[in-house]
Amino acid sequence: RRRRPPSGLPPVESDVYLPGVNSTPTPASASTRSSPLEAVARLRGLVVLVAAAAFVRLHDLSDWWLNPDEGIYYSILTRADFAGFWQEVTANAHPPVFYLLLRGLGYLTWDFVLLRWAPVLFGVAAIWAFWLAGRELGGPGVRGVVAGVLAATWLALSPDAVALSQVLRPYSLVVLLLAGSLVALLRYRSRPERRTLVAYTGL
């Protein structure tokens, strides 16, 4: 900005506030700072898509009894003592993470319908991860947005993804972890940072 001091000196260009020379200063970050609500507003389409996906996955969640595979999980989870539970888990072919998560929820409830909420939440979170992966693959600008929307919409509306999110099995958790690791790998490829590499390794 070109300001003319009251002393009649030649105008100078300055962004520094000088009493009597510049106008009242405005914080540099004021125009760029955004609230969480503004961030949500910019992503309102994605938020609506995630909400719709959650509704579809929660619909009729209690309309059927445990299937045989769910019954195996449920019988292991409901073992009275932790030692017996852990012995069953280590003898099972599947990794223990899902078992441990549900065992933790078991301290709140053993209602299998409520326990099914965990796979639902994993499936919904995977939609967000697909959005991020699409953005990374598509690149900056409109291409990245379109790629992210297409990826998220595909997972949100996929009948198979919906079905896998409604059963007491670790499938939706696996999808979430794979999508998250893909996001971390793509970000590390474009912006190598130690924390991104740690996230990828952990996932």
Describe this structure in words.
The longest helix has 22 residues, at 117-138. Mean pLDDT is 82; it is low at 13-21 and 23-32. It is built from eleven helices and two strands; from the N terminus they run ββααααααααααα. The protein has 203 residues and is an all-alpha fold. A hairpin with an 8-residue loop joins strand 1 (2-3) and strand 2. Helices cover 63% and strands 2% of the residues. A two-stranded antiparallel ribbon has the order 1-2. It has helices at 36-42, 44-58, 68-77, 82-91, 97-105, 112-115, 117-138, 142-157, 159-164, 171-190, 194-202; strands spanning 2-3, 12-13.
What count of helical segments does DSSP give?
11
Strands of the biggest beta sheet: in what spatial order? Answer: 1-2
What do the pLDDT scores average to? 82
Largest sheet geometry? 2 strands, antiparallel
Which band does the percent of strand residues land in? under 5%
Task: Encode the helix/strand succession as letters.
Answer: EEHHHHHHHHHHH
Q: For the CA atoms, what is the radius of gyration?
A: 25 Å
Level of helix content?
55-70%
> What's the assembly state of these chains?
single chain
Low-pLDDT regions: 13-21, 23-32
